[in-house]
Amino acid sequence: MSKIIEQKTREDISIVLCGEAGQGIQTVEELLTRILKLSGYYVFATKEYMSRVRGGSNSTQIRVSSKPIHAPVARIDILIPLDKEAIKHVSSHIDEHTIIIGDEERLETVQKVINVSFLKMAQEIGKAIYANIIAVGLLLGLLDGDVKIGKDFLTDYFTEKKKEEFVTDNIKALEMGHQEAKRLIKENILKSESFLKIKKSSKTKNHLLLNGAEAVGLGAIAGGCNFISSYPMSPSTGVLTFLAQHANDFNIIAEQTEDEISAINMALGAWYAGARAMVTTSGGGFSLMIEGLSLAGMLESPMVIHLAQRPGPATGLATRTEQGDLKLALYAGHGEFPRIILAPATIEDCYELTKKAFNWAAQYQIPVIILTDQYTMDTYYNIKKLNIPKEEIIHYIVQTEPDYKRYNLKVKDGISPRGIPGFGDGLVRVDSDEHDEMGLITEDMEIRKSMVEKRNAKWYQLKKEVLPPSFTGAKDYRILFVGWGSTYNIIKEAMERVDRADIALLHFQQVYPVSEESITFLNKAEQIISIENNYSGQFSRLLEIETGISVGTRILKYDGLPFYADELASEIDDILEGKGGQK
Q: Do 154 and 175 belong together in one domain?
């Protein structure tokens, strides 16, 4: 019988801030996590937000720990509600142990509130806008963060953007919040030892704090990306923004196009001219790109597409998360042509797999799709480092001869040498219609047959380089969990909480083509349980098609939120005890 581990001496604390869009919650998250990291803590942060510029209810969760921490939990230890709707918004996660800190006169709750009038305190400094910095100072004081580090960080953070008076007032706000925390502890209103036993580490100071969007952007730079054309669409916009911000540093052309059709066609033109291009979009934008995707297949053009998933159909939940677009990425396009689909599991994966996507796209002259989601894009935590590539980028471009044939059929692997205009003496013809070896339109049936076979011959090469799934857990497992993409760290923590000696996780960072190595792991299991953020178990069904092995049980979530490690552990425990599970 399994028993979920409850932390008697808790090594992490879950803080949730909730309020309206425009109240500065994101600023609190950004400042607090970075100051705490510099103070010696491991941090994890993720957010959920409504599709509104002002109003609504948004929340951010920050977990602070004495050891690496990489997943969200449903549990709230400290809640700071910044408006009267906040408590109602997160009520399902509040229990008798949740400490609520806020202005009791402005909050509607039956639960005891520790009264801290953030707004009144901010007005003493001069403006209501300082309330969020007071909250940073309060939390810094409760968590025994280094207030001097906080002051220095605020000075660096605001100096280039704001006037000196604004910087001074923010430091006053930080100090005021810090003093208020010490007052609450001194007067025994809050007993810090009752909820916090976290040790500091000198290791975290030099760690990186990156979210998924930044990591994808850095991976693109490492892969040689020098052109991005996209139309903004959440949750993918952060990648476009990041590369645009660093365009001058890395000689990148960043173009915000009028629509997604223009974006992918512009990127195809860039590859044709010799650039290394990408587009970033979400499901609705990718739908508009499908004809361009097919064009890449016919041109045998490299293409890198970052598809950050959100719930559909149509606009769905524009700012929430889901793993609902695997089938879209897999089957998009008319006709038959090869593709690779990658699904990063970690922040490090976002970097490494995006870098790899550019190399594979160039090497095999195919589209490579990177599937992330809103949860991945907006989540960050401590990582030690990213591996800066030491080797030179291989462009897989040849200098053309006068008799150059872009689609030379005399190749065994289907990969004809790729030339670009102006590099050599040959003429580089490409065409969206079926074509002969020179790139000229043809309706010759024999040539058509040969070209189809040539394009699809690349499959045999792709299958030789498929990334194997990662394996975690007991070697002598009976029960095997299967996941893909962003669920990795959540499932891993849930397994640790369940604490059984007969369970393991097989997790896929490349979802197509499917690794044949997975068959050995799947065949060994007595029970296979897939865990996915969608309604139909899209990957487990693909796995059944590709391997012929049935996945017996599915744990599925599709409400627009990611799994929580503690709730997932309970659901796993119920299934293993025969109390639940979705077939």
A: yes
Task: Mark whether 448 and 478 lie in a shared domain.
Answer: no
Q: At what angle do helices 131-142 and 118-125 cross, to 10 degrees?
A: 120
Residue 202, burial from CB neighbour count under 10 angstroms (0-12, 13-18, 19+) = exposed
Residue of 582, 583, 556 lying closest to 568 (CA atoms)? 556
Q: Which two tokens stand for residue 446?
A: 């024999």
Domain of residue 549, residue span: 470-576
* 542 neighbors 497 (Cβ within 8 angstroms): no
**Residue 508: CA count within 13 A, CB half-sphere:** 29
Range among 117-131, 145-159, 288-302 rated most confident: 288-302
Per-residue pLDDT of 390-426, as tens digits, reads: 888 999 999 999 999 999 999 989 999 999 999 999 9
Number of domains in the chain: 4
Cβ atoms 200, 337 nearer than 8 A: no
The answer on 175 and 321 residing in a single domain is no
Kindly give, in sequence order, each residue whose CB lies less than 8 Å from that of residue 559, ignoring residues fewer than 6 positions away.
none
* Rounded Cα gap, residues 375 and 235, in angstroms: 9
Pick from 193, 187, 156, 190: nearest CA to 171? 156
Task: Measure the N-to-C terminal CA separation of the chain; round to a whole number of Å.
Answer: 22
Query: How many residues appear in the chain?
Result: 583
Mean model confidence pLDDT for the chain: 93
CATH number of the domain enclosing 101: 3.40.920.10
The pLDDT assigned to 568 comes to 98
Within 257-352, strands assigned E span 277-281, 303-309, 340-342
Indicate if 181 and 224 belong to the same structural domain: no
What is the token pair recorded at 435? 């074509």
Q: Compute the distance between CA of residue 512 and CA of residue 493 in angstroms, rounded to an integer.
A: 26
C-alpha to C-alpha distance for 46 and 69, rounded to whole angstroms: 12
12-51 tens-digit pLDDT: 999 999 988 877 788 889 999 999 999 999 999 999 999 8
Q: What is the DSSP string of 489-554?
A: HHHHHHHHHH--TTEEEEEESEEESPPTTHHHHHHH-SEEEEEESSSS-HHHHHHHHHH-----EE
Last residue of a domain, one of 175, 206, 237: 206
Q: For the chain, what is the largest distance between any 2 Cα atoms, rounded to a whole number of angstroms? A: 88
pTM given for the model:
0.95
Take residue 422 and report the two structure tokens written for it: 């102006």
Token pair 């979400």: residue? 282
- The CATH code of the domain that includes 334 is 3.40.50.970
pLDDT (0 to 100) of residue 193? 60
Co-location of 88 and 114 in the same domain: yes
Tell me: the pLDDT tens digits for 492-546? 999 999 999 999 999 999 999 999 999 999 999 999 999 999 999 999 999 999 9
- Final residue of a domain: which of 206, 224, 243? 206
Same domain? 406 vs 367: no
Cα–Cα–Cα angle for 321, 559, 53, rounded to 5 degrees: 55
Compute CA distances 387 → 347, 390, 405, whole Å: 12, 9, 38
Q: Are residues 427 and 360 in the same domain?
A: no
